């Protein structure tokens, strides 16, 4: 499904995070992100992003919405382990949503492709990676709509035992499904999960929400944002621009799409307690860490069973560049996903 995307000859995804500041000490977010914002609210994206097609037998692309040009990249474990793939020992399903500040990257981006491929094998899980519409061409809530369409697609496969997607039909334990997102994908996963709570998704059961360094914000700077205002990965001018391009025109960073702390009972607050469990992953080298901790406390206050892995140091996106951190993360995910401590 990535045929319309150019496959850039870039050797390492580290180039994506090699942001440079201006000599005067401030940051120019347009130069950092290598984007041009056109008058018709479209972007010219010049950031070299390596892409990976599905060329092996353990991943494939499946159309989702032809009109919106959305699709799913499905992964299964690369090593078939005995009867792990039998009718009596099926695999959990993780609906995964990639990051990129809502304006960059794809499910076919090499770093997300490789991450999902490794996650499928380490966790012995099926990964449903969502290609959603980017902003500003499609501002929020378009990405939330696409994530929900992917969740409904998973349900449709479960209901159509005869003609459903073969990998899901043969391998999936739909009663053990999870929604996971990284960075902006974490934001999308959060909002999609709240929507999903309103629906009858049987036989799909959402057993947990996984927020990997979720991208959330607000007008008032937090201590960690001030401390890391010129962060190499996410300097505040960059995050501000991402929100400006992603939010509905005229909205500010205290819009509920950006700042979950403004929720009340009339928006999403009343639904939060319906989330079974939530795992939040972060590190104090990420400017967003304070907001992520605030979100955890809010969820706990609503009665959600929240687990966390908060590391010292690090940076936003570290799991995509540090194999050791990725290995630890997969271990944490495995414990969370296969834990028997699930509220019915």
Automatic annotation (TrEMBL):
<protein>
    <submittedName>
        <fullName>Alpha/beta hydrolase fold-3</fullName>
    </submittedName>
</protein>
<dbReference type="InterPro" id="IPR013094">
    <property type="entry name" value="AB_hydrolase_3"/>
</dbReference>
<dbReference type="InterPro" id="IPR050466">
    <property type="entry name" value="Carboxylest/Gibb_receptor"/>
</dbReference>
<dbReference type="Pfam" id="PF07859">
    <property type="entry name" value="Abhydrolase_3"/>
</dbReference>
<keyword id="KW-0378">Hydrolase</keyword>
<comment type="similarity">
    <text>Belongs to the 'GDXG' lipolytic enzyme family.</text>
</comment>
<dbReference type="InterPro" id="IPR029058">
    <property type="entry name" value="AB_hydrolase_fold"/>
</dbReference>
<dbReference type="GO" id="GO:0016787">
    <property type="term" value="F:hydrolase activity"/>
</dbReference>
<dbReference type="InterPro" id="IPR002168">
    <property type="entry name" value="Lipase_GDXG_HIS_AS"/>
</dbReference>
<feature type="domain" description="Alpha/beta hydrolase fold-3">
    <location>
        <begin position="94"/>
        <end position="318"/>
    </location>
</feature>
């Amino acid at each position: 499904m990535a045929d319309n995307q150019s496959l850039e000859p870039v050797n390492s995804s580290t180039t994506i995070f090699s942001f440079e500041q201006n000599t005067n000490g401030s940051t120019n977010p347009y130069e950092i992100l290598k984007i041009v914002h056109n008058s018709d609210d479209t972007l010219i994206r010049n950031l070299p992003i390596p892409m990976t097609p599905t060329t092996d037998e353990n991943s494939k692309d499946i159309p989702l919405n032809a009109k919106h040009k959305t699709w799913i990249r499905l992964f299964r474990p690369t090593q078939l382990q005995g009867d792990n793939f039998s009718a009596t020992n099926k695999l959990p399903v993780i609906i995964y949503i990639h990051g990129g500040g809502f304006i960059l990257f794809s499910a076919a981006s090499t770093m997300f492709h490789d991450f999902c491929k490794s996650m499928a094998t380490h966790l012995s899980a099926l990964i449903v990676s969502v290609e959603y519409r980017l902003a500003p061409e499609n501002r929020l809530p378009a990405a939330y709509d696409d994530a929900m369409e992917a969740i409904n697609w998973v349900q449709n496969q479960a209901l159509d035992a005869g003609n459903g997607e073969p990998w899901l039909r043969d391998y999936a334990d739909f009663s053990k499904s999870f929604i996971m997102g990284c960075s902006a994908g974490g934001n999308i996963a959060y909002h999609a999960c709240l929507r999903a709570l309103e629906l009858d998704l049987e036989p799909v059961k959402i057993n947990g929400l996984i927020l990997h360094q979720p991208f959330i914000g607000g007008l008032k700077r937090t201590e960690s944002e001030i401390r890391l205002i010129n962060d190499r990965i996410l300097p505040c001018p960059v995050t501000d621009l991402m929100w400006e391009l992603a939010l509905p025109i005229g909205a500010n960073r205290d819009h509920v799409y950006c700042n979950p702390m403004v929720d009340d009972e009339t928006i999403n607050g009343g639904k939060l307690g319906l989330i079974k469990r939530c795992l939040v992953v972060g590190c104090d080298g990420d400017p967003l860490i304070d907001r992520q901790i605030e979100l955890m406390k809010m969820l706990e206050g609503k009665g959600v069973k929240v687990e966390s892995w908060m590391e010292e140091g690090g940076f936003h996106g570290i799991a995509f560049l540090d194999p050791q951190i990725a290995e630890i993360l997969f271990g944490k995910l495995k414990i969370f996903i296969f834990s028997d401590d699930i509220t019915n």
